[in-house]
User: What shape does this take?
Amino acid sequence: MTEKIIIALDVMGGDHGVDVVLPAAARTLARRSDIGLLLVGDQAIIERSLKELGLDGHAGIEIQHASQRVEMDELASHALRFKKDSSMRVAINMVKEGRAQACVSAGNTGALMATARYVLKTLPGIDRPAICTSLPSMKGHTWMLDLGANIDSTAEQLFQFALMGSVLASALDHVEAPRVGLLNVGEEEMKGNETVKEAAGLLSSGALNYIGFVEGTDVYCGDVDVVVCDGFVGNISLKTSEGVAKMIAHFIKKEFTRNIFTRIAALFALPVLKAFRRQIDPRRYNGASLLGLRGSVIKSHGGADVLAFANAIDVAAEVVEQNVPERIKSRLQVILSERQAG
Amino acid sequence: MTEKIIIALDVMGGDHGVDVVLPAAARTLARRSDIGLLLVGDQAIIERSLKELGLDGHAGIEIQHASQRVEMDELASHALRFKKDSSMRVAINMVKEGRAQACVSAGNTGALMATARYVLKTLPGIDRPAICTSLPSMKGHTWMLDLGANIDSTAEQLFQFALMGSVLASALDHVEAPRVGLLNVGEEEMKGNETVKEAAGLLSSGALNYIGFVEGTDVYCGDVDVVVCDGFVGNISLKTSEGVAKMIAHFIKKEFTRNIFTRIAALFALPVLKAFRRQIDPRRYNGASLLGLRGSVIKSHGGADVLAFANAIDVAAEVVEQNVPERIKSRLQVILSERQAG
Assistant: This one.
């Protein structure tokens, strides 16, 4: 029998805490016998909720008490200093101590990134971790990073992001050499800011399957596997995309409820529109990887529901199965030694 | 009788040149008697096309010959040096010389910006012009700038963009004090890069109706009138939005053509979906203003069709009617003198 993958869950994190994390845990355990869950948070609250869910005494569950909670708007520095027994921090400690192979948190991104970096440390050769997620595209999905961990990035850091994203895409999509593009304002060589131009130079060295500059439209077209940018641009792109999708959903709904005729049309159209929505359902894409750490940490959307949080747990399991941090580390060693030799 | 607004059109610019610009001109003249058009480009080609369109000898049309054309992928510096008789350059000259009150070009953005800046010069107090357009929102539309004219912007430049966008929104929407937001990765004061933080300080002085940081999602929600960012972020946001909208259209189409049942559903749904598409039709939003110049220059999307280009001509007419450059100039004088006094 193969051993279970143990994943620590920050039970108190996110907008909904225990009300989402535990039902998501139940969902995971019902579907997968290869995953064990280490629930981190207030023991009394967790035990009560487990009882309500009929999960008390479940063989796939362990509880690790943590007395504090990081608030969603808490400064990262404050959480680091004063929340040493938070469910977030203890969940990350579980990874550090080897009691879990990954952890998942829907808590505040800044605090999660700072704590993960402080507790786990970055891999040798990585300056800063990056947040990477997959997004739906016309032909499947596209990986994008960084999505907000780093506001200003140097060319060397963009190169590191490209390498980490490439390793993640390769591991999870089982692709040999994912196509890596650098997000820019135009495809012509002349365009873009200095950092992006310099990063393009580093990426042209041949270590990765670098396909050149890509534009905002390309994120969703499916002709690039990994889109690299700094966290400021990445976060704004991602949120702008969310905004457009919400507006489109708003207008579609409005049109179909305009009058009796459009309401009848809606009866026919809704099943089809629902099938379409399933394809780009953001919940199916929930679970961003914090890459570049000596351990696996997955960030769930703060407002994630049960299905979305369960998806983030699946992402964590996949990252563990595919041994992503180890792969990044060894890929980095090869590239760094080639550089020194060159 | 009021005098006509004269608008110079770069007939040879854009992906389709004369084939789109002249039918758009015809469309404008058929709808509006208050606009006169100065067609700039190859005289023989223009005359032939006008004849085909039955417009030869139209009282609302004048032709200004220009022997060259700026290519869509031509470097701005090359166009500036070697295309002094291009339709783009001559159209801008018409504004400079007062023969037209505005010009519209679907040509290469970089060349248009560089040429307009060189020929017309910036207004006193403006470092660099910015590109501003309106985008659909859930409650109407949102103005956004800069969209690609400036890759790196200082805090002072972001402040200038905010001022120019505010004046444009105020003039065209007839709103006293448009709500101005600064695009950032989060609404909390602590987030964002140094430039954005510094710009927030300048904007808090009270000269504008500054509402604070806004996120990518807010561009389309309708609770902010003017969204300010640097050109790199703005261009990527805009193109990412286009990408999402295209992907959604692609999936909707795919679902409705999946089988016989979905095709029947489509018969009912299509009229409703078309009504919805009209609301966010990018052609209705075509026509971006180059703000901060001593004259009005409107940039049309390079791939614009007749309806879209005609819309850009309408934007030009509105900018002239509302005297936008003069308004920006006087608003700037007030703010600059207040600063000196303070």
Remarks:
- The longest helix of chain A spans residues 231-256.
- Chain A touches chain B through 64 residues (CB under 8 Å).
